[in-house]
């Protein structure tokens, strides 16, 4: 008598992981943005247990992450030991991709992260005139509201990336890098960074380049190269010379032109938005209202 054969077991579906080792099926938000130097991520999971994150050693530089909320825990396995870390709001971690990383994640997970490649790390050190080849400390669940708030500023950029020019990402990256080098470098050195000013020629050239690119499609590195200085030096010196970051200065030039067009022409708000380098009328209205306390249509009527 022929016996019935047992039905074959279904094949196991391999777990799909992202480039940071997270289980993609448990992420409800997985966004990324690239700047000249780094890649930013926003990753969210409401799963009670996200599972294990694991990345093999690689020459990828550093990963800096900040928790946007409290209630996150991770047990990290290193060198035959495990340590449990509790992450509150604005708790950060820094890890070197050269190290094998394995961690069990529990609790709500809402992180903004910055992947800093090795080449970008060295370039930023050069921009800040740091002479040694220092490394960043390994940090776990350390409270750092500065990094937390800077990375939190990325959240609207993930939702509306077209509204933000490369200048914004460059500025944010340089500000974060300055804080990292000051607080988390293993070999702290006097950088010799001093407040300095652009020459009249450099300042004039930088402003001309910004005025000619009101859409913001210009990076700090491009302006710095034209001025013959590093991006870090240019960023510091432009602020010292004008009192504003390059992006802030550009935004005010956009608004100045917009007010002139509102007052002197019959152009529609949509036409003015495009002419002044804003993504659309909605973007224009938000920026104008924040600056002047009223929407552009009302400002035009009251002018």
Protein model, in words:
It is built from 11 helices and 10 strands. With 303 residues, the chain is of the alpha+beta class. The protein has 3 domains: 24-165, Jelly Rolls, CATH 2.60.120; 200-243, Arc Repressor Mutant, subunit A, CATH 1.10.10; 248-302, Homeodomain-like (Arc Repressor Mutant, subunit A, Orthogonal Bundle), CATH 1.10.10. Helix 2 runs antiparallel to helix 4, helix 5 packs antiparallel against helix 6 and helix 6 packs across helix 7. The longest helix is centred in the middle third of the chain and has 19 residues, at 166-184. The radius of gyration is 24 Å and the shape is globular. The model has no long low-confidence stretch (mean pLDDT 89).
Write the CATH homologous superfamily of the largest domain. Answer: Jelly Rolls
How many DSSP helices?
11
Q: Report strand order across the widest sheet.
A: 1-2-9-4-7-10
Sketch the topology as an H/E string, one letter per element. Answer: EEEEEEEEEHEHHHHHHHHHH
* Strand count: 10
**Cα distance spanning the termini:** 98 Å
CATH topology of the largest domain: Jelly Rolls
Main sheet summary: 6 strands, antiparallel
As a percent range, the share of helical residues equals: 25-40%
Task: Give the percentage of residues in beta strands.
Answer: 15-25%
Shape: globular
Task: Label this structure with key terms.
Jelly Rolls, 10 strands, about 40% helix, four-stranded antiparallel sheet, about 300 residues, 11 helices, Arc Repressor Mutant, subunit A, alpha+beta, 3 domains, six-stranded antiparallel sheet
List the helices and strands and how they pair.
Layout: E1 29-34, E2 39-45, E3 49-55, E4 62-67, E5 72-78, E6 81-87, E7 91-96, E8 101-106, E9 109-116, H1 118-127, E10 139-143, H2 145-152, H3 155-159, H4 166-184, H5 200-211, H6 220-227, H7 231-242, H8 246-264, H9 269-275, H10 281-292, H11 296-302
Antiparallel strand pairs: 1-2, 2-9, 3-8, 4-7, 4-9, 5-6, 5-8, 7-10
Helix pairs in contact: 2-4, 5-6, 6-7
